[in-house]
Each structure stands twice: as C-alpha cells, then as structure tokens.
Specification:
The protein is mainly alpha-helical. It is 45% helix and 3% strand. It binds heme C (2 copies). The site of one heme C has 27 residues, from α6, α7 and α8.
C-alpha cells in the first residue's frame, strides 16, 4: 500500500516537473525584459482596433520598403537598404511564421541572410496579449540598425507605433495558419533540412480559382501568369504556385511593397514591382493554388 502511494507521488512529481519544463521551453527564448506579463491599456486596445492587418502583412514582408511607400519623407540609411534581409521579418521568421521548423529549415545564414529564429511566431502571437506582442515587435534595446547579425533589430527608430500596431494586428488576427493551404513535411534539422509540400490548395476548386484569377490578377500577370518575369529572375506565377505555396498564401492577398532592390539591380519591373492588397478570400487563394498546378495553363519560365 505505502509503496503504491510513493509510486503515485513520484509519477505526479515527474509529471509536474515536465509540465513546468514544457511550459517554459515552449515559449522559446525569454527575449528582452518587459515583453511578457505587461497589461493591456484602453489606449492599446483602441490602437489595436484601429490598426490594419493587411498593412501589417506588408510591413512583415518588408518594413523598410513599406514604410517608404507610406511616407515619401521617410528614408533609411544606405547601410540598411543594402542589407534588407536583416530587417525583413520574413527573413528570420519565415513566410509561414514557423521559423527554423518551417520553410526556413533549409535556408542557411550567409553574409546577406540572417539565421532563422527557433520560435513558432504564429503560436506565440496567439498566446500573448496585444501589449506583449507590441513590445516584442518594437523590441527597444534590440540590435542596433547599423549592425548585421541575427539578433532581432530594435524597430523603435524604424517604424512608428501605428505601424507596429498594424503588425500586431497581422500577427494576432490576420496572418494565415499556413496549414490551411497545404501540407508540409520537413526532414532533417535547420539549416540543412528540406521541406516538401503536398496537397497544395487543399482540394480547392480550379474553375473558381481561374475566375478569381481572371478578375483580379490576369490584368497584370497575364492570362497564363507569364506577363511578369518575377524579379527578372526567370520565374513566372506558375512556378510559384507549384514551388512556393508558402509565399503565395501571403502575397496573393496582401501583395507586396515597391520592389526597390530589384529596381536598383537594373530590373525594369512593371508597376515598380508594387502589388496592391487584393480583395479576395482564403478560399479564393486555395482555388487559385489548385488552378496553378496545371503547368499547361500556367507554364514555368
Ligand atoms: C535578424 C533576425 C530578425 C528579424 C529581421 C526579426 N526578428 Fe523577431 N526575433 C528574432 C529573434 C532571434 C527572436 C528571439 C529572441 C528575441 O526576442 O530577441 C525574435 C523574437 C520575436 C518575437 C517574440 C517571440 C519570442 O519567442 O520571444 C516577435 C513577436 C517577433 N520576433 C516579431 C518580429 C517582427 C514582427 C519582425 C519584423 C518587424 C521581426 N520579428 C524581425 C529575430 C528577428
Ligand atoms: C496591379 C498589378 C497587379 C495585380 C492586380 C496583381 N499583381 Fe501580383 N504582382 C504584381 C507585381 C508588380 C509584382 C512584383 C513583381 C516583381 O517585383 O518582380 C507581383 C508579385 C506577385 C507575387 C510574388 C512574386 C514573388 O516571388 O515575390 C505573387 C505570388 C503574386 N503577385 C500573385 C498575384 C495574384 C494571385 C494576384 C491576383 C489575386 C495578383 N498577383 C494581382 C502586380 C500585380
């Protein structure tokens, strides 16, 4: 009898310790002080309610380019413009917000590309309140803008509070759960792992996809997706539907800010490489994804 009680006590103790350990580790690195446990004020709530998550999505893609698109008086130091990937949220956190465990699993860091973060930002943002997410994004005291390493930048001199609230809105309410758009299987570990997509578009309706495409996209990208040679790098929309569903789920609806890097590199992109926000639904994206798997209708480059 006594032995049994000891046994149960031991099981309980081990269970308790592992739950505590799990709830600590799943948060990822603690990060800058003050990020966790902050309370939401009425002002925070009002700022969040008034924020635009679609703009937040564009800032997540490229904070520097989107900030310059929004205000012609804004400019950034050439040293930052020359290293955009050290400022783009997606470079460290991924189009899928899954960091090292998502599509970035095979993207090794280099002199022009930072290390991916070992944090599931999609889950993290859901677990934290809007003030905590705001402080984490603003990250006062983070990496100085003039240094290029994989620490998170201090965005307080780069973005306005209103822009940071747009990003908070994106992370909390607007960002897609990418698993609603495709299945993904990863093999190995960061930064040498691989990723394979399957069930792209999750059984969407190709005929509806084509109708959505013809109404919203064909005018710029062409009837078969070949009017824009993306980044002048030998890529058509068809290639992206098949190879980059993680990026399509984002850009098909939120578009992208002015493509300053490729213009500076001599690429004559139409519309300055800027794509406006699209008035379509998540289901429209899935339908277009299925449509775009047909290589005879949407050829590769
Ligand atoms: C150069 C790489 C890099 C860039 C660019 C970057 N981050 Fe991070 N981010 C990190 C790292 C590393 C951490 C984890 C440690 C920390 O808090 O500094 C992190 C943590 C976070 C966290 C808190 C998650 C946690 O577990 O503490 C949020 C929220 C976040 N980033 C959002 C963003 C947003 C939004 C942007 C763009 C405006 C961005 N990050 C740009 C590297 C980056
Ligand atoms: C007003 C013109 C316009 C419309 C409408 C438009 N796009 Fe774009 N799209 C662009 C431009 C310009 C680019 C950037 C090309 C570049 O920089 O090389 C782009 C880029 C993209 C990219 C990203 C390519 C990449 O690798 O970064 C995707 C995906 C995309 N468009 C999908 C769509 C879809 C889907 C629709 C319809 C729902 C659509 N676009 C509507 C002009 C447009």
């Amino acid at each position: 009898m006594k032995k049994k009680i000891y046994f149960f006590a031991a099981v309980l103790f081990v269970g308790l310790i592992s739950t505590m350990f799990y709830s600590c580790t799943k948060e990822g690195p603690a990060g800058p002080a003050g990020k966790n446990g902050a309370a939401v004020s009425a002002e925070d709530q009002a700022a969040f309610d008034g924020a635009d998550g679609s703009i937040g999505a564009r800032l997540y893609d490229h904070p520097l380019n989107e900030a310059m698109d929004q205000d012609a008086n804004v400019s950034f130091d050439a040293s930052m413009i020359d290293y955009p990937n050290f400022f783009r949220c997606k470079s460290c956190h991924g189009w899928d917000l899954r960091g090292q465990k998502g599509v970035l699993i095979g993207k090794a860091p280099s002199a022009t590309y930072p290390t991916a973060v070992d944090v599931d930002l999609y889950a993290w943002a859901k677990r934290h309140n809007i003030r905590e997410v705001f402080e984490a994004v603003k990250n006062i005291g983070g990496r100085n803008s003039k240094s290029y390493n994989s620490l998170m930048p201090d965005y307080s001199p780069i973005l306005t509070d209103a822009q940071i609230w747009d990003i908070v809105k994106f992370l909390k309410n607007v960002a897609h759960n990418v698993m609603d758009f495709y299945d993904m299987k990863t093999t190995g570990v960061y930064p040498t792992g691989t990723v394979a997509f399957s069930d792209i578009g999750k059984g969407g309706n190709a005929a509806n996809g084509l109708a959505v495409y013809n109404t919203n996209c064909a005018g710029c990208h062409g009837a078969d997706g070949t009017s824009i040679n993306i980044y002048c790098q030998g890529e058509y929309l068809g290639d992206m539907f098949r190879d980059d569903p993680h990026e399509i789920q984002h850009k098909a609806i939120w578009g992208m800010p002015t493509d300053r890097e490729h213009i500076a590199g001599g690429c004559n992109v139409p519309f300055s490489g800027e794509m406006p926000v699209q008035n379509i639904t998540s289901q429209d994206i899935r339908d277009m994804m299925v449509m775009g798997q047909d290589e005879s209708k949407f050829p590769g480059f």
